[in-house]
């Protein structure tokens, strides 16, 4: 699967957050919430303190409390794009995508050009993507990149949307632009996946072989090479790589590896081998463990469709067998006459 699916995480819970020009690090969000609550009691309400507390609430998934603080903070400082951005994220966390989109759009009207606007476009793109409006999400990632061409994650997000929309040529060109602007190794690996998906697998092979010679954990690269082999009609070589990848992933998962994206990798390898039931189980287990990526949902949906087709085929076969039995019985009856 795309490297984007393996690397991009929701970072709110572990980011170092900068508010009003100074960074906050502390023993834990609950402790910080208690301190901020006391400061609000002693010092009185301020937009910055409410924003800080809302950020901590979001870290521990208390989105409703965060929304309440941010609504009040925005009343105190209606010109703050930072508060509007966090409010949009908080609405998104509690599933209110309409409100999240509106909050991001309102904040964009007052945001400064450059990184501030770029981050708001990415927030709104996440909302649009969750609403399955991939075209609008893609427009927002394009705008974000124009505002801040140095953000590698924006190119990765755009790449995934272009894949969902079947824009293969644009995806390859966009990643080449990102590699030139940022020099990110993550984008180079995503570009290799885009080449494979875009019918240019041969161009990716040299880099994949180089990584396989050096990598200690090889499963991701083995899956990539298998895709190239399939494109080259080398099915036996592809199957051998996929089996090796699954063997490595089984060992890692058997040792209690906590990364659910290993399940996604194994699911993809199983699917490429034609083991659709095993693939579906891995994808579904990954979703249960928190993987919300649209690509995974898409694969589960596709495999569900295959199940229905197989079910219909079995039903048709039973019907045909029943009709054949009735015909045979009638023939036997006629013969007995």
List the helices and strands and how they pair.
Elements (H helix, E strand, L loop, with lengths): L2 H5 L10 E2 L2 E2 L5 H15 L3 H13 L3 H14 L4 H13 L3 H14 L4 H16 L3 H14 L4 H13 L3 H15 L2 H13 L3 H14 L4 H13 L3 H20 L6 H12 L3 H13 L5 H43 L1
Antiparallel strand pairs: 1-2
Question: What does this protein look like?
Answer:
There is one protein chain. It contains 17 helices and 2 strands. 38% of the residues are buried. Helix 2 (29-43) runs antiparallel to helix 3. The radius of gyration is 26 Å and the shape is globular. It has a two-stranded antiparallel ribbon with strand order 1-2. Helix content is 77%, strand content 1%.
State the share of residues found in helices, binned by percent. Answer: over 70%
What structural category characterises the helix and strand content?
mainly alpha
- Give the oligomeric state: single chain
Largest sheet: 2 strands, antiparallel
Estimated share of beta-strand residues: under 5%
Spatial extent as radius of gyration: 26 Å
How far is the first residue's CA from the last residue's CA?
A: 66 Å
Give me the number of helical elements. Answer: 17
Strand order, sheet with most strands? 1-2
Stretches where pLDDT is under 50 for at least 5 consecutive residues are 1-26, 330-337
Integer average pLDDT: 86
Output the helix-strand order: HEEHHHHHHHHHHHHHHHH
Q: What is the global morphology?
A: globular
Topology, number of strands: 2
């Amino acid at each position: 699967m795309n490297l984007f699916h393996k690397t991009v995480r929701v970072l709110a819970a572990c980011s170092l957050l900068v508010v009003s020009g100074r960074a906050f690090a502390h023993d834990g969000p609950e402790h910080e919430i208690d301190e901020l609550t006391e400061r609000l009691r002693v010092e009185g309400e301020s937009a910055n303190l409410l924003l800080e507390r809302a950020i901590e609430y979001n870290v521990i998934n208390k989105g409703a409390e965060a929304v309440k603080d941010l609504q009040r903070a925005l009343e105190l400082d209606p010109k703050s794009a930072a508060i509007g951005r966090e409010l949009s994220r908080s609405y998104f966390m509690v599933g209110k995508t309409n409100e999240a989109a509106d909050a991001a759009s309102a904040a964009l009207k007052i945001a400064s050009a450059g990184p501030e606007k770029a981050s708001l476009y990415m927030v709104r793109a996440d909302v649009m993507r969750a609403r399955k409006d991939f075209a609008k999400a893609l427009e927002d990632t394009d705008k974000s990149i124009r505002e801040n061409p140095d953000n590698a994650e924006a190119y990765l997000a755009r790449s995934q949307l272009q894949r969902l929309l079947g824009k293969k040529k644009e995806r390859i060109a966009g990643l080449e632009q990102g590699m030139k602007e940022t020099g990110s190794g993550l984008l180079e690996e995503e570009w290799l996946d885009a080449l494979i998906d875009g019918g240019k697998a041969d161009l990716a092979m040299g880099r994949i072989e180089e990584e396989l010679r050096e990598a200690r954990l090889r499963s991701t690269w083995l899956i990539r090479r298998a895709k190239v082999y399939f494109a080259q009609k080398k099915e036996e070589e592809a199957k051998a790589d996929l089996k090796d990848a699954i063997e490595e992933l089984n060992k890692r998962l058997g040792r209690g590896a906590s990364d659910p994206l290993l399940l996604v990798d194994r699911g993809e390898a199983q699917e490429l081998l034609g083991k659709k039931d095993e693939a579906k189980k891995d994808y579904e287990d990954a979703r249960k463990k928190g993987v919300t990526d649209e690509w995974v949902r898409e694969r589960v949906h596709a495999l569900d469709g295959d199940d229905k087709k197989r079910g219909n085929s079995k039903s048709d076969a039973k019907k045909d067998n029943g009709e054949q039995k009735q015909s045979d019985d009638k023939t036997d009856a006629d013969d007995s006459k």
